[in-house]
Amino acid sequence: MARIILLLAILLQAWIIRCTPANYTIDDTTGDARAQNLPFYLPQGSWSNNCTECDMQPEAQNASNGTYTQTRDNVNISNPAYINIDFEGTAIYLFFILGNELPSGSITTNITIRLDRQEYTFSRNSTQGTGFFEYDQLVFAKDTLPNTNHTLSIDVYSVLAFDRAVYT
Ligand SMILES: *[C@@H]1O[C@H](CO)[C@@H](O)[C@H](O)[C@H]1NC(C)=O
Ligand SMILES: *[C@@H]1O[C@H](CO)[C@@H](O)[C@H](O)[C@H]1NC(C)=O
Ligand SMILES: *[C@@H]1O[C@H](CO)[C@@H](O)[C@H](O)[C@H]1NC(C)=O
Ligand SMILES: *[C@@H]1O[C@H](CO)[C@@H](O)[C@H](O)[C@H]1NC(C)=O
Ligand SMILES: *[C@@H]1O[C@H](CO)[C@@H](O)[C@H](O)[C@H]1NC(C)=O
Ligand SMILES: *[C@@H]1O[C@H](CO)[C@@H](O)[C@H](O)[C@H]1NC(C)=O
Ligand SMILES: *[C@@H]1O[C@H](CO)[C@@H](O)[C@H](O)[C@H]1NC(C)=O
Ligand SMILES: *[C@@H]1O[C@H](CO)[C@@H](O)[C@H](O)[C@H]1NC(C)=O
Q: Which segment of the chain is annotated as a signal peptide (predicted)?
């Protein structure tokens, strides 16, 4: 009897561990260590992770894991740059570095996120007086997804510095 109870307890514990959701990071540069996936940045010439001539130059050391990936300044609205991120899970969170005051003036962030045939827009104007950059800003969260494979894409109509995604 004691053995059966012990066995049941072990099974219950395994079941709880299996069902406890965990968060995994998709870094802008090193990607998803668990699924061995990297984000895709297209077109290639529109992206950089060490842009020295860009208007927006956040400190890499302040970014998550020391890296970010940003659009160059040549934004083409009729043919926007985009990021594709694949993940398997039930939730996705996107973290960017947002810019405020730049040498060229104020700055607008404007993106469209496409996920499971739905579109979401995120747009924001500078928040004056809050410093040049705001690091690790959550700009998108969706936590009611079916537990399957998803592709999220981000169309970029402005300057943008992508730092990381987290999925559950
Ligand atoms: C995963 O991370 C997001 C964003 O930080 C957080 O809101 C959520 O509670 C986390 N979920 C788990 C299961 O830790
Ligand atoms: C952080 O970057 C290092 C390489 O610089 C890499 O080996 C590691 O997997 C990265 N960690 C995460 C959580 O992405
Ligand atoms: C900057 O990044 C590009 C590709 O993203 C690479 O070819 C180049 O060597 C890098 N330059 C420096 C100074 O790290
Ligand atoms: C950026 O990192 C430096 C050195 O680690 C730190 O002193 C500074 O407060 C950080 N800035 C922000 C905005 O997090
Ligand atoms: C912007 O994209 C459109 C459509 O692909 C293209 O025709 C145009 O030449 C591009 N403009 C620049 C400045 O690259
Ligand atoms: C964002 O970009 C789209 C596509 O160019 C445009 O239609 C929309 O008006 C822009 N939104 C803002 C707030 O600038
Ligand atoms: C940003 O400012 C422009 C011009 O003042 C305005 O049209 C737009 O609605 C603002 N966007 C947001 C997201 O506040
Ligand atoms: C998700 O994709 C991975 C890699 O392609 C695959 O191994 C896995 O079975 C897929 N999961 C589902 C639920 O389709």
A: 1-22
